[in-house]
Write a structure and sequence with these properties.
Blueprint lengths: L3 E8 L2 H19 L4 E5 L4 H7 L5 H9 L2 E6 L14 H11 L4 E7 L12 H4 L3 E7 L11 E4 L5 E4 L6 H16 L4 E6 L5 H17 L4 E6 H10 L6 E4 L1 H14 L9 E6 L5 E5 L18 H13 L4 H16 L2 E2 L9 E2 L2 H16 L1
Parallel strand pairs: 1-2, 1-3, 3-12, 5-10, 8-9, 8-10, 13-14
Antiparallel strand pairs: 4-5, 4-11, 6-7, 11-12
Bound molecules: nicotinamide-adenine-dinucleotide, 3-isopropylmalic acid (IPM) and manganese (II) ion.
């Protein structure tokens, strides 16, 4: 098979720290398994602002459009918070998602047995947890027009964002959720606020229509977003696949992160449509941010980014067995009691970011031996 082209964008804060460990695993696969990577690294976010004055250079965008997959660390940090809104680090990430049309963001929340006690919730609530949040990623209030800050004649200012969804935007992301459900427990819960938002009424309507037309075999339920946030901490195992809009999905996936023990454990895949050549644009990134509070201290948990790379192997390259290998290595390392600070437990061995990378590599060596 031909080499897979990867664009790696470490970004800011803990981004480069966790990516360094993931690069070691990528190299391990490049050497040990059937897959070969052509890897290029570039700047995004604050790092790109410092170098080019913009959070994503056009040349980097161009590269992203032409590779098989993008792997991103995290963007943002206090040193760029006072910049003009349109050139903030986060805009670089949003531009990648929008221009690559990555409308379906898969955020699996899986609780490893060894981490049952790392969650702030009771063990019986989270043990065996395996849910998939499908977050719409290129629409809704994140991109809706009109938007901005206006000066009113009264001297007051007005901040505006618009929640907007079209039929096709809803259907394409719902189809992804139904397809995923068929490979899992065959249940989809669609989440909106149809009780107060017209965009929510349309969302519920279109999801139901698509279900009745093409996915009758999948069990569909509906839930208001406020109730869903409560149900996720009350009894998260009632869910299989959750499909929801951009903003609700952002918030619900951070909630779901804590069910797995730490935000430092949650990976994600952002997928576009399959084009004429059979290729699907895709970006893989952890759910967490640049964690300025621990950046530069070799403390961050690299597993969310590593598991994002595993998702790349599975979803972009159809290398499910290699993805399983990484997931098993992670499981074994956690079972050995190796923990970064965010998931540390009594009796466990605290390791640094680099130490976690070392542990995963030796677990991989062991599995492949
Ligand atoms: P955050 O996710 O960076 O951090 C939240 C908390 O979780 C912090 O206490 C942090 O130390 C901890 N944490 C996060 N990832 C961790 C890891 N891998 N290991 C151990 N602990 C971890 O969210 P925030 O503090 O609200 O945002 C910080 C910056 O990151 C902001 O500029 C924000 O816009 C940006 N951000 C970027 C992304 C992204 O790039 N995808 C996502 C979320 C936030
Ligand atoms: C995420 C982040 C981003 C979002 C920010 C950094 C733009 O919170 O990926 O979850 O809100 O989508
Ligand atoms: Mn978020």
């Amino acid at each position: 098979a031909s080499n897979k082209k990867l664009l790696v964008l470490p970004g800011d804060g803990i981004g480069p720290e966790v990516m360094r460990e993931v690069r070691r695993v990528v190299d391990w696969f490049d050497k040990r398994q059937a897959v070969r990577f052509d890897l290029e690294e570039d700047l995004v976010g604050g790092a790109a602002i410092d170098a080019h004055g913009v959070p994503l250079a056009d040349a980097t965008m161009e590269k992203a459009m032409n590779v098989d997959a993008v792997l991103l660390g995290a963007v943002g940090g206090p040193q760029w918070d006072s910049l003009d809104f349109n050139i903030k680090p986060e805009r670089g990430l949003l531009r990648l998602r929008k221009e690559m049309e990555l409308f379906a963001n898969l955020r699996p929340a899986l609780c490893f047995d060894a981490l049952v006690d790392a969650s702030t919730l009771k063990p019986e609530i989270v043990s065996g947890l395996d849910i998939m949040i499908v977050r719409e990623l290129t629409g809704g209030v994140y991109f809706g027009e009109p938007r901005g800050i206006e000066e009113l004649p009264s001297g007051e200012r007005r901040g505006i964002n618009t929640q907007v969804y079209t039929t096709s935007e809803i259907k394409r992301v719902a189809a992804v959720a139904f397809d995923l459900a068929r490979k899992r427990d065959n249940r989809v819960c669609s989440v909106e606020k149809a009780n107060v938002m017209e965009s929510g009424v349309l969302w519920r309507d279109e999801v139901t229509k698509l279900h009745d037309a093409e996915f009758k075999d999948v069990e569909l339920s509906h839930m208001y977003a406020d109730n869903c946030s409560m149900q996720l901490v009350r009894a998260p195992k009632q869910f299989d696949v959750i499909v929801t809009d951009n903003l609700f999905g952002d918030m619900l996936s951070d909630t779901a992160a804590m069910l797995t023990g730490s935000l430092g454990m949650l990976p994600s895949a952002s997928l576009g449509d399959i084009d004429e050549t059979g290729r699907r644009k895709a970006m893989y990134e952890p759910v967490h941010g640049s964690a300025p509070d621990i950046a530069g201290e070799d403390k961050a948990n690299p597993l969310a980014t590593l598991l994002s790379f595993a998702m790349m192997l599975r979803y972009s390259f159809d290398l499910g067995e290699d993805a399983d290998l990484i997931e098993t290595a992670v499981k074994n390392v956690l079972n050995e009691g190796k923990r970064t600070g965010d998931i540390v437990a009594p009796g466990a061995t605290m390791v640094s970011t680099t130490g976690m990378g070392d542990a995963v590599l030796s677990a991989l060596d062991h599995l492949a031996a």
